[in-house]
Amino acid sequence: MNAPLRTPLHFDLQGLLRAIASNETNDRLGCKLDSSQWEVLAGYLQPFALSQGQLLIEQGAPDRTLYFLESGALSVHYEDDKGRVRLAMVAPGSAVGEGAFFTHNPRNATVQAAAPCKVWCLTPIRFTELANRHPAIALAIAMALGSLLGRRLVNKPKRVAVT
Which three-class secondary structure state does DSSP give residue 33? Predict the structure, then answer.
């Protein structure tokens, strides 16, 4: 899943924060944390790189990890029972994985890197640790993800991005 890219990448939380701040679409993460809270959250996130074409999430997988996109683009698609493919694109400053995170259901779509990406992940175990040690930060993340989920569900083309 997280193979290295050809050129070395530098991961810095500031890149993710810039991506979130510059995303003015309806698909933005929109998390309201101050700089000290972001620094705390960074200790619970794991950055990694995806090369173009690499799978991040596979439809049907039982995983509940959250992913925050710093750079690149993610393609989200699934095949329904009639063989039709639905597609959405996710830009930097957004997240994927919120559907399974909240529902505990298997992933309902596949997410693939449409370009080389920098991604930050938050596993359910690390989220639980965060919630126990820093409940206000965990609540802010959960509320931002819930808001993103709600906006995607009312936007038909973005519904497929609820993974």
Answer: coil
- CATH, residue 35: 2.60.120.10
With 0-12 CB in 10 A as exposed, 13-18 as middle and 19+ as buried, what is 33?
Answer: middle
**pTM reported for the whole predicted model:** 0.89
Residue 82's domain comprises: 13-161
pLDDT by 10s per residue, the chain, length 163 = 445 444 455 678 899 999 999 999 989 998 989 999 999 999 999 999 999 999 999 999 999 999 999 999 999 998 777 776 778 899 999 999 999 999 999 998 999 999 999 999 999 999 999 999 999 999 999 999 999 999 988 887 677 778 8
- 100 Cβ neighbours under 8 A, 6+ residues apart: 62, 63, 64, 106, 107, 108, 163
Q: What span, in angstroms and rounded, lies between the C-alpha atoms of 102 and 152? A: 14
Amino acid letter, residue 63: D
